[in-house]
Amino acid sequence: MNRRSFLSTSLCATVALNVQAGAHDDFFVAIHRDDGQGLQTLLRRGMDPNTSNDKGQTGLVLALQLGSLHAFQALVNAPRVNVEVRNAHGESPLMMAALKGYLEPAHLLIARGADVNKTGWTPLHYAASKDQPAQEQMVALLLEHHAYIDAASPNGTTPLMMAAQYGSMAVLQLLLDEGADPLLKNQLGLRAVDFAARAQRPDSITLLQAAIRQRLPNQGQW
């Protein structure tokens, strides 16, 4: 290869890299701006909807985290989208939808094959950990799609424990009504009632103590 051909090839490669880098930046700018139309244009030009940024955050998870629901819609409808692509923390789009209480996005993700029962922290853990109006419906949706009610996180925490410390009374009651086990312990030997006590939530403590009494009717103090 002569010097002129080498320079021409190098220049083309540099231009291609710059174009690729520019599209990558535009992709995440569009998500931050909730620019669904801009994202659709990038996707039509061949942008991978499963792209991650330099912090390992994926487009779908980021859109839900930011509340960029137009951007989410553009991404979730992309032909090449993988609804199970996870960020650097192992969070799936369904986990983020569950955390934020976004029912319609959760429906869409489940319809496209999102894993309701991924290993480790699950969408149900995330849904149970928030006290906001949509969470009871979110928990019900996940259970309807066969979410394992006593799923254990890597440290043995269950959705009931998360609800006891962080969630609403409605979610706590729903989990108990659907069969969540209040006797389970995490790796530190803590039950859901201990989580409620740690958070100083007397109503949750009372509810969980009653549930334990039903499971252990001859245990006196419970």
TrEMBL record:
Gene3D superfamilies attached to this UniProt entry: Ankyrin repeat-containing domain
UniProt cross-references to InterPro entries, sorted A to Z: Ank_Repeat/CDKN_Inhibitor, Ankyrin_rpt, Ankyrin_rpt-contain_sf
Protein name, per record: Ankyrin repeat domain-containing protein
Record Pfam families: Ank_2
Record flagged with keyword Repeat: yes
Record's keyword annotation contains Repeat: yes
Stored SMART domains: ANK (SM00248)
Span of the signal peptide: none
Superkingdom of source: Bacteria
Annotated keywords: ANK repeat, Repeat
PROSITE patterns: ANK_REP_REGION (PS50297), ANK_REPEAT (PS50088)
